[in-house]
Prior knowledge:
This protein is 23% helix and 18% strand. It has helices at 13-24, 62-70, 84-91, 116-121, 167-171, 175-180, 231-240, 270-284, 317-322, 408-425, 431-440; strands spanning 28-30, 37-43, 96-101, 106-111, 126-134, 138-140, 189-194, 210-216, 242-243, 247-248, 255-260, 289-292, 331-335, 357-362, 386-389, 393-396, 402-405. The longest helix has 18 residues, at 408-425. By secondary structure, it is α/β, with parallel strands linked by helices. Helix 7 (231-240) packs parallel to helix 10 (408-425).
Amino acid sequence: MKFLKAIFLLVLPMMMLMSAGTESSAAKKKYPGKKTYMFRVQLRDKSGTSYSLARPSAYLSQKAIERRARQHIAIDSTDLPVSTQYEKMLEKHGTSVVSKSKWNNTVVVMTTDTLAVNRLKLLPFVVGVRKVWTSPDSITLEKPRPKYHKELVLHDTVDVDSHGATQEQLAMLGGQTLHSQGYRGKGITIAVLDAGFTNADLIPAFTNANIVGFQDFVATSNGKMFNSSTHGTQVLSTMAVNVPDVYVGTAPEASYWLLRCEDQQSEQPVEEDYWAAAAEYADSVGVDVINSSLGFYEYDNPADSYRYWQQDGKTALISRTASMLAGKGIVHVNSCGNEGMAAWKKISFPSDATDILSVGAVTPMRKNASFCSLGPTADGRVKPDVMAQGSPTMVVTERGTISSDMGTSFASPLIAGMTACLWQKYPQKTALQLMDMIRRSGSNVAHPDNVYGYGIPDFGSICGDE
């Protein structure tokens, strides 16, 4: 996962060396147990399933069904869960199912038996098998939860409005206009797909946030949802925190699902499977908007890493899944990546997906951040789609303090939250219509390019009658 905050690209070399030294000194321990492997198994069909298109309530919530009906979207075979008969047969061959994707009709199995893959390939319902994870030699020791402040305080003496520290980043998007009209995301559900949400269950700043549920999709996590990464906490804060005059997010009245799908102990393709499982879960519980501040292109095994020509929205499993979300009635917002000054330079996967909003970062002066990843996709589509303030963004940290941080990771949820507010205003619009409206409101819509996309949207000026 490449959500590295771009500040590392901007600080002095000595500070970079100091940071690297800190990272390398993290305590490690030997990976417990035997050498273990995970394989992605592509299934031929969904034969033998007990589920039916005529009874969608068995696998989709009422909210998910209503979202499809409102947008005139039919429930189809991709919505049917994978065959439980096939799962049982796979487990009879020395493996255990740890993840699955009904849209891709795949399952991920875990085993310590290196010969298991040969047996799986011979099964008549198996189309293909690919190794997607090998247990690392060592893992980082879990740290105790950081202490946090009992209240959120704005220490800056500069005059601000009722939104407090978020005034500037919200005003850039015309967000105060929507908020003043009463559109603050009420009735809209947002899923946050991220690496973890350290202390988000404890920090008083989140007391007023409507967090309706959470789920961990990392097979090896051992329940570290709220003590695995600070990244998701900061991303969530830009949307959900609601402390008037101090810090108000872009969608303070929306509902939130927190979905962990990133394993920080290694960088391997199975994380795409976790992401797909999380996205499908978000669909099934009735989410309207997904924010994902995650991106992939380089893995621990160079043979697994991607190439530029694969950025077509359908080659990578994660991008193929993301490209299906609008077809389920969901607006997917994804950070485009922080590789503009690195060797890769291009957007990360799944920002190459079709029918999503890929978000780049700008400075308070509305200039593109130098670290922001670039387009186009391999098939020539403009990327990023739109821009928001990410150099820097005001966030709430895992310690419950207001701070500034840098990266497209924090520009993306600004757009996701404003999208929720806009959908509250125009509930009759489809996901595709809403994304088109947002692009067309961009400051660069007259000549979109692969640095600035369609520009910075003006949510306050968008009219649903266009």
